[in-house]
Design brief:
Layout lengths: L1 H23 L14 H27 L4 H47 L1 H14 L4 H11 L3 H11 L12 H16 L1 H8 L7 H27 L3 H29 L5
Helix pairs in contact: 2-3, 2-7, 2-9, 2-10, 3-4, 3-6, 3-7, 4-5, 8-9, 9-10
Length: 268
């Protein structure tokens, strides 16, 4: 009797959990938020921009904790910005090129397998469709139709069985690398602008650092909103998460700079 009651309670809790999940899903008449599809370019801009702002502002924070001058901040900041920008741009180029080369090579291999072991390859695809929940007859029919179109069959096998998307011929690795480099420079410059703009007006390093904080928060919020627009997420939550990420990184850098200064015995 106790086992039966426990089973009933477990089933009830599962039903309640399923109902709660259903409430969080869009209804039939409620359209989910649209995502902004802009290819690898948008991804490169957002990724490089976020990394640039956090990296550059963290560097400024550690320098400011050491009470160095604005000249030191600008020299180290610009040098670090350009070096990291080149590194990230080249890294994006190599990553995209490697991914495309791997996909092209895998497609050649799959094409050879289909040409030389067509029947066994078709059976593997049928079993894969069955594993995804498709009826045997339907799976056989689908594969039979695809077998008439070898290029489509090869692409389908790569996607379904190997989880590899066919190489995008329109995607240019050098373009992604250039976009990443430019985005890194543009957004990474935001924290440094305060030290440039305020030079004629004040020599107070604390005011300049405060200005860098404000500009960094604004830049992070813009990128957070852009990320939410791309992914169809909540703007406020995305912006807050992005700002929090930058704040934690900058606070850590500032604290480390302050501690190292004290350990080294350097005092004001």
């Amino acid at each position: 009797m106790e086992i039966q009651n426990s089973t009933v309670l477990l089933l009830d809790s599962q039903d309640e959990e399923a109902e709660a999940q259903d409430k969080n899903r869009p209804t039939r008449n409620e359209k989910p938020k649209e995502t902004c599809i802009g290819g690898e370019s948008i991804k490169s801009i957002v990724y490089a921009g976020l990394d640039a702002i956090v990296t550059c502002f963290s560097l400024i924070s550690s320098i400011s904790a050491g009470h160095l001058s604005s000249v030191d901040v600008l020299v180290l900041g610009v040098a670090n910005l350009v070096a990291d920008g080149i590194s990230m741009g080249f890294g994006d180029y190599m990553s995209t090129k490697t991914e495309n080369d791997m996909a092209a090579n895998e497609r050649d291999l799959t094409f050879w397998e289909v040409n030389n072991h067509g029947r066994s390859q078709e059976l593997e695809l049928v079993r894969r469709y069955q594993a995804l929940g498709m009826d045997l007859d339907d799976a056989t029919t689908v594969v039979k139709v695809l077998s008439k179109y070898k290029d489509i069959l090869v692409d389908e096998k790569m996607t379904i069985q190997k989880g590899i998307l066919p190489a995008d011929q329109a995607e240019k690795p050098w373009k992604n690398g250039l976009i990443t480099f430019v985005a890194f420079l543009v957004f990474g410059s935001a924290p440094l602008l305060s030290f440039i703009i305020l030079i004629p007006f004040t020599q107070n390093e604390n005011i300049k650092f405060s200005g860098a904080c404000v500009l960094s928060v604004v830049a992070l919020a813009i990128l957070g909103i852009a990320k939410a627009k791309i992914a169809g997420q909540n703007y406020t939550l995305s912006a807050a998460t992005t700002i929090l990420n930058g704040a934690v990184a900058a606070a850590s850098a500032y604290l480390i700079g302050w501690l190292l200064r004290r350990v080294a015995g350097l005092h004001d």
